[in-house]
């Protein structure tokens, strides 16, 4: 069961795919567009191409666990993703994923310009890894 994670953003949307078994995080990429229709079309294409069966999408929460100021925007985008792909995304707490992604890339020696191009893909991978770990622990 292939799982796809989405790190939605205003200009860049990170996407990470699991391996075909749905156990390990695999490839990651970034959709560079501010246009929701472009992002949705690309997500739908990836779902079809990779036979994705489950979606997980980063969801903004405050550090105390309450919903962040962008929560409604993300809920609306998740509904659009469901219409475009036929799959309802699981909304996954994305606290600290972007911060952790920047740290990982910095430690890997990536300069600010290179980090900007890949940080969303790394954040999507972190969302995917967290979700897959959760599913494994849940049994």
Task: Output the keywords.
139 residues; alpha/beta; 5 strands
Structural overview:
There is one protein chain. Helices cover 49% and strands 24% of the residues. By secondary structure, it is of the alpha/beta class. A five-stranded mixed sheet has the order 3-2-1-4-5, sandwiched between helices. The protein contains four helices and five strands, in the order βββαβαβαα. The two termini are 15 Å apart. It is globular.
Q: Would you summarize the structure shown here?
A:
By secondary structure, the protein is an alpha/beta fold. It has four helices and five strands, in the order βββαβαβαα. The chain starts with a strand and ends with a helix.
Secondary structure: elements and pairs:
Elements lengths: L1 E6 L4 E7 L6 E8 L3 H15 L1 E8 L11 H15 L4 E4 L3 H11 L4 H27 L1
Parallel strand pairs: 1-4, 4-5
Antiparallel strand pairs: 1-2, 2-3
Terminal CA distance: 15 Å
Please work out how many helical segments DSSP would assign: 4
Give the proportion of residues in helices: 40-55%
- Report strand order across the widest sheet: 3-2-1-4-5
